[in-house]
Design brief:
The chain has 120 residues and is mostly helical. The protein has helices at residues 9-24, 31-54, 60-86, 93-119.
Length: 120
């Protein structure tokens, strides 16, 4: 993943899901990597999809709910990435570390958004 993170959160979540997909494609086709990969593909893509939904102006309650889903999916992505890293070849560990870090940063960003929306 590129270290120059875009300011646009929609683009950043897109690049996160894209980077996850590209890394997963490098993994061997073993039962554990296939199953964990399916899960991380879903959760990483859901971060961006729910962010798009949160910005559709369907009301504050809906937006808050969507941001909470974004945070949950980012946390879930970090979990699946950790499992994949633990079961993968060491040569990919740096890439996994970068994506785990990004998932955690996205989780913090969405937590901040949720906290600000709860104050209003």
């Amino acid at each position: 993943m590129n270290t120059d993170k875009p300011y646009d959160l929609g683009e950043r979540t897109f690049l996160f899901a894209l980077s996850v997909a590209k890394l997963v494609n490098k993994l061997p086709k073993m039962l554990s990597s296939i199953e964990y990969s399916k899960q991380v593909i879903k959760s990483s893509g859901s971060v961006g999809a729910n962010y798009i939904e949160a910005n559709e102006n369907l009301g504050e309650k809906d937006a808050l709910y969507r941001f909470k889903v974004c945070r949950k999916e980012a946390k879930e992505s970090a979990f699946w990435l950790r499992l994949l890293k633990a079961t993968s070849d060491e040569s990919l560990h740096d890439e996994f570390d970068e994506l785990i870090k990004e998932a955690n940063e996205l989780k913090k960003i969405f937590s901040s958004i949720i906290n600000k929306k709860n104050i209003k």
